Amino acid sequence: MYYTYLLRCRDGSLYCGYTTHIEKRMDQHKEGKGAKYVKAKGYKGLEFYIASSTRSDAMKLEAYIKRLERKEKENLIKGDTRALDRLGIEYNLVLSTLNSPVISENSSISEAEDM
């Protein structure tokens, strides 16, 4: 499984990346061992991640999300998946909201039992 994620930095900026181990990667960001950008800005929290079955899809999602305007990224954080639906690929979006996760599979949002 591959994961594309969006996290918030302490200065309010957003960072998008992809990984094969979401929890391990978040620990790296928290410890300042992740990306240079997050190390410089400081890790605040994971906003969401998207599970993909292929590395290619995860990388496409990362590139696509990085090109979105900030408003569209904030809409994704709120659960508005219209920007993702335009891609035409299957995805499983997990919104973190920093303590109360919910899962969305192609726009259907429900409460998650665990991450």
What oligomeric state do the depicted chains represent? Answer: single chain
- What are the secondary-structure elements, in order, as H or E? EEHHEHHHEEE
Question: Helix/strand-derived class?
Answer: alpha+beta
Any guess at the CATH architecture? Answer: 3-Layer(aba) Sandwich
- State the domain count: 1
Q: Main beta sheet: strand number and arrangement?
A: 6 strands, antiparallel
Question: What is the total tally of β strands?
Answer: 6
Please state roughly what percent of the residues sit in beta strands, choosing from under 5%, 5-15%, 15-25%, 25-35%, 35-45% or over 45%.
Answer: 25-35%
Radius of gyration, in angstroms, nearest whole number: 13 Å
Under the CATH scheme, which class? Alpha Beta
As laid out across the biggest beta sheet, the strand order is 2-1-3-4-5-6
Poorly predicted spans? 99-115
Query: How many helices does DSSP assign?
Result: 5
Q: Describe the global form.
A: globular
Mean pLDDT: 84
The CATH topology comes to GIY-YIG endonuclease
- The percentage helix is 25-40%
* CA distance, first residue to last residue: 14 Å
